[in-house]
Amino acid sequence: MVRTYPLIGEPAALDLVNTLIRRGGPQQTDLIATGRDLVHWLAARGSSVDADLAQVHKLRDCLSELIDARVHGTTPSAEAIAYLNETSTGRPPQIVWAQRPRLASDNIITESVSTAFTLLTAPDGAIRVCAHRECTLLFAATNARRQWCSAASCGNRARAMRHYQRSAHL
After folding, report:
1. What letter does residue 135 receive in the DSSP assignment?
2. 93-137 pLDDT, tens per residue?
3. Domains, the chain, with CATH or none
4. 22-61: string of b/e by CB count within 10 Å (b at 16+)?
5. How do residues 69-80 score in pLDDT, each as one tens digit?
6. How far is CA 66 from the centre of its chain?
């Protein structure tokens, strides 16, 4: 079975958090539940380095809490803040300049921590939750007007729904 992953291409911290579909809900789906899932997800992101599943899950939980707190204007736990800071110790990001600049380590932990600091300290509104009522995916708002995680999926579904509602009333 070929699995597709939503929003590959967002900053690594968001890509990682987005591996939990419908986060916190009764229909939550973990796209990297197993080591094999993790290998496939890393390959889809273009990473050639293996990672420890337990460590990735722990970081994802931490990032999810921190990013949700940032988006909703709440305060995360001291444990989540401490874990991110501890994880960043000794992992200075190094960049490789090629056709597309990337981190030298190609390690999802290092890349996620690095992008998390950038996202968490960005201006308000830099991280958004998709506006589609059934979607919980996060995205980096590089455009002030962007409201969907993907114009091709959630954006199209919303436009189709509006069209259906307008035509049903004619």
Report:
1. -
2. 555 555 555 555 557 888 898 889 899 999 888 999 988 888 888
3. 12-168 (1.10.3300.10)
4. ebeeeeeeebbeeeebbebbbeebebeeebebeebbebbe
5. 999 999 999 999
6. 12
